[in-house]
Amino acid sequence: MILDLDIGNTLSKWRLKDADSSEIRSRGAVWTREEWRPGSDIPDLDVVEAVRISSVARRAVLEETVSLLRRRVGAVHVARSAPEALGVTNGYEEPGRLGVDRWMGTLACYQLAGGCCSVDCGSAITVDFVLPGGRHLGGYILPGLRLMKESLKLGTRNVAIDPDSEAEELLGPGTRTVEAVNHGIYMAAVSAVNRIYSEVCDREGVPLPMLLTGGDARVISRGIQVPHAVWPDMVYAGLEACFPLTAAERAGRMSGAPRVPSPVSLEKIRAGLAFSMLL
């Protein structure tokens, strides 16, 4: 089995993948912490032959996790942001300071779609762009839905947005405080993503396919105005591309890869942007 770990600042997600069939056998998530207890927080390591890790948590968390795994597992692969990988040139002035989850997502999207806009809807919402040819432009970091709600300190943090809610409902005025908060932060998030996408595509003169991942991708997806796809395994797919361990991965097949959405024309993007500026 292959254990893939996506360690975030708040939540650490894992999955077990069959090394022979490339099938996903199980998944889970735990709160990120510095001390890990085998058998409780992570799968049975006796069945694991290799581990791949993407981590944006504190250095102590990563070091403790790697130390534990190397005592139990033969091969441990840790992803790092690099100046260039898999045909993509990192757009950061200091490439190592780009969050590795963003780097993994960007690499996965480029392998799938070429030029692309990758959006990760987690504790923070990140939006990254790669042009056809592999030049990463850099990106944007916004507070995520939960972070925005907590910042208001109105006692509504435990009332989450229903991911099955329709965008029309969430974009309307709230008639209770909790609704006003939820609808306000939703409007802020989707408006920002829509505007960022249009502005960058207009400036660069190219419409790009958009791919979303992260815990809030499903609900944010409902308010995105351009064709897009949700790819829950985007970060894992970046690990697969960087450290291919199965026959399917070596052949370039990434887990859960969606059909690449066809972007609208640049003319439509510019028309929509011009209209929004008139309002």
Automatic annotation (TrEMBL):
One BP annotation, GO: coenzyme A biosynthetic process
UniProt-annotated location(s): Cytoplasm
Major place of residence: cytoplasm
Reactions catalysed: (R)-pantothenate + ATP = (R)-4'-phosphopantothenate + ADP + H(+)
InterPro entries: ATPase_NBD (IPR043129), Type_III_PanK (IPR004619)
GO function terms (MF aspect): ATP binding; metal ion binding; pantothenate kinase activity
Chain positions recorded as substrate binding sites: 92, 99-102, 177
Pfam families: Pan_kinase
Positions with a binding annotation for ATP: 6-13, 123
Enzyme Commission no: 2.7.1.33
Active site: 101 (proton acceptor)
Any GO CC annotation of this UniProt entry: cytoplasm
Required co-factors: K(+); NH4(+)
Task of the protein: Catalyzes the phosphorylation of pantothenate (Pan), the first step in CoA biosynthesis.
Subunit structure: Homodimer.
NCBIfam families: baf
Family note: Belongs to the type III pantothenate kinase family.
Protein name (Swiss-Prot/TrEMBL): Type III pantothenate kinase
Organism field: Halomonas heilongjiangensis
Source taxonomy: Bacteria, Pseudomonadati, Pseudomonadota, Gammaproteobacteria, Oceanospirillales
